[in-house]
């Protein structure tokens, strides 16, 4: 079997045990996730602090039927799916997500992505306005104060959101409404807020205010630099409720241009087809949700072809209530900028339906997908 997608090895696993006697303080993987083809192998690596620490490591896979791992960190991909590999070294642990696909991954997750981080296609949100979607859902790391886009459109942080705090080094992607970190007038304005009082998420002092105009500092995209894409800082934003409805609505431009889907046999969500679209193959897209998430089924390779054609995928990222995470990969909600009393309007994606205009309480942690108006 061959090894694919090799990363720079900071510390080879074969050298984890040294002759020095320093006690390990921390350990991390050199990559958060690895995509590998069925039948291939991959040598994982970690970085220990201090570098001369002496320790013994044990390895486990959350699903050995998908991918197994031996005593030296060698992964063997067995069947399509996902699992999590954990290393335990003297009580210090780290995890790495393994994504097993049906064939050798296409190099470059940035296929059809612009140099400012958008999928290179356009979607009408009104009779006169179009937008581009960001390459993936918004993510945040509190320990470094860094915002980024998910590398893959299907990527969700899932259970990592339970570690939400002002200091965690875990990436999170479920946020309370308007928690951009900007001085919006809200009491709970930080992306790591777990406050369950909805009144603390009011921007500009008025419950009717949306994340627009003078209150746009509550919008994640208007406020923050996005890692690797700072050239367009301040131009990103979330859609209004009316715009979500138009995007999915019964109008001539957008009719029949969304459908539920599963990618790689695992990841559930909704596919959005751009206004102007050339299908990569026959029968590659069915609109609606006639067969729930099996309405459209894409392998890794097939999805990369769909993305190259301009398609957008919104994964079902679940819901966070305080630090409790529910329904990851079962249902998803995407914030709009439109307030609704103690709640705000969202796009809801589930196996039964896709509905724009569903209201959810402001304190709940939901997904954020940014857009940029067409220049």
Descriptive overview:
The protein is mainly beta. It folds into 2 domains: 13-101, Immunoglobulin-like (Sandwich); 106-375, no CATH class. Helix content is 6%, strand content 31%. The strands form 8 sheets. A 4-stranded mixed beta sheet has the order 2-9-8-5, with no helix packed on it. Strands 10-11-25-15 form a 4-stranded antiparallel beta sheet. The radius of gyration is 21 Å and the shape is globular. Mean pLDDT is 90; it is low at 1-20.
Topology, please?
Layout: E1 26-29, E2 33-37, E3 41-43, E4 46-49, E5 57-61, E6 67-69, E7 74-77, E8 81-89, E9 92-101, E10 123-124, E11 130-133, E12 138-141, E13 146-149, E14 171-172, H1 220-223, E15 236-237, H2 241-248, E16 258-263, E17 267-272, E18 297-298, H3 300-308, E19 312-315, E20 319-321, E21 324-326, E22 332-340, E23 343-349, E24 354-361, E25 371-373
Parallel strand pairs: 2-9, 16-18
Antiparallel strand pairs: 1-4, 3-7, 5-8, 6-7, 8-9, 10-11, 11-25, 12-13, 12-14, 15-25, 16-17, 17-19, 20-21, 22-23, 23-24
Give descriptors for this structure.
mainly beta, four-stranded antiparallel β-sheet, 25 strands, 2 domains, 375 residues, disordered N terminus, Immunoglobulin-like, 6% helix, globular, four-stranded mixed β-sheet
Task: Tell how many strands the DSSP assignment holds.
Answer: 25
**Order of H and E elements:** EEEEEEEEEEEEEEHEHEEEHEEEEEEE
Structural class: mainly beta
Give the helix tally. 3
Cα gyration radius (Å): 21 Å
Please outline the major beta sheet: 4 strands, mixed
Proportion of beta-strand residues: 25-35%
């Amino acid at each position: 079997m061959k090894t694919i997608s090799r990363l720079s090895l900071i510390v080879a696993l074969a050298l984890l045990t040294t002759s020095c006697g320093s006690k390990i303080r921390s350990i991390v993987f050199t990559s958060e996730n690895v995509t590998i083809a069925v039948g291939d192998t991959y040598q994982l690596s970690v970085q220990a602090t201090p570098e001369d620490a002496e320790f013994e490591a044990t390895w486990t896979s959350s699903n050995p039927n998908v991918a197994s791992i031996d005593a030296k960190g060698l992964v063997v991909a067995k069947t399509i799916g996902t699992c999590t590999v954990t290393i335990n070294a003297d009580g210090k642990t780290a995890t790495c997500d393994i994504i097993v696909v049906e064939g050798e991954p296409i190099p470059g997750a940035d296929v059809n992505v612009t140099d400012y981080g958008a999928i290179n296609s356009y979607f009408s949100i009104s009779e006169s306005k179009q937008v581009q979607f960001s390459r993936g859902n918004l993510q945040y790391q509190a320990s470094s104060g860094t915002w980024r886009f998910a590398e893959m459109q299907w990527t969700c942080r899932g259970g990592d959101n339970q570690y939400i705090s002002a200091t965690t080094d875990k990436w999170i992607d479920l946020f309370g409404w308007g928690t951009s970190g900007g001085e919006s007038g809200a009491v709970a304005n930080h992306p790591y807020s777990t406050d369950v009082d909805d009144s603390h998420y009011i921007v500009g002092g008025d419950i009717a205010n949306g994340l627009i105009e003078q209150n746009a500092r509550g919008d994640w995209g208007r406020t923050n630099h996005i890692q690797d894409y700072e050239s367009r800082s301040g131009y990103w934003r979330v859609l209004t409720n009316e715009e979500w409805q138009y995007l999915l609505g019964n109008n001539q431009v957008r009719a029949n241009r969304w459908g539920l889907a599963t990618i790689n046999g695992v990841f559930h969500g909704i596919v959005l087809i751009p206004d102007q679209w050339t299908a990569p193959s026959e029968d590659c897209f069915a609109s609606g949700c006639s067969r729930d998430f099996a309405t459209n089924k894409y392998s890794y390779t097939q999805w990369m072809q769909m993305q190259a054609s301009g398609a957008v995928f919104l994964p079902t990222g679940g819901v966070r209530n305080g630090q409790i995470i529910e329904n990851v990969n079962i249902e998803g909600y995407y914030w709009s900028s439109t307030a609704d009393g103690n709640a705000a309007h969202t796009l809801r994606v589930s196996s039964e339906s896709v509905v724009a205009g569903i209201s959810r309480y402001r304190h709940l942690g939901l997904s954020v997908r940014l857009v940029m108006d067409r220049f």
